[in-house]
Amino acid sequence: MRYQSGFTLIELVMVIVILGLLSAVAIPKFVDLSDDAEDAAIAGMVGGLNSAAGVNFAIKATGNTATTVTDCQHAGALLAGGASGIPAPGYTIASLTTNLTVEGDTIDNCVLTHTASSKTANFITTRVD
Could you state, in order of their start, the residue ranges of all structural domains in the chain? Predict the structure, then answer.
């Protein structure tokens, strides 16, 4: 008697159908990850700006020489590699409100915009003269 090895046509078709169903369910979940990546990028940049502004103000409060921050545009210079007040290529910083004074310190409410996606996030900075 002769034995054959391998798969039948029905088994192969069923495997292809199952793989097709799995990919039809999984692919839409991974196709648009760029939106989540942009959200995470701007959230990370805002977190860095908030931290840098807080550390800079703490340096000033201890009597040491801090980086001068006179408006939202200068807040970007607090980040490593910040140039001309812009924290990184592809981002812009603008002022939302100013002149909020707390115990003699002026606090600016700023907005960071990711220019490619127009996504925005707010952060605050304290002026250091």
Answer: 33-126
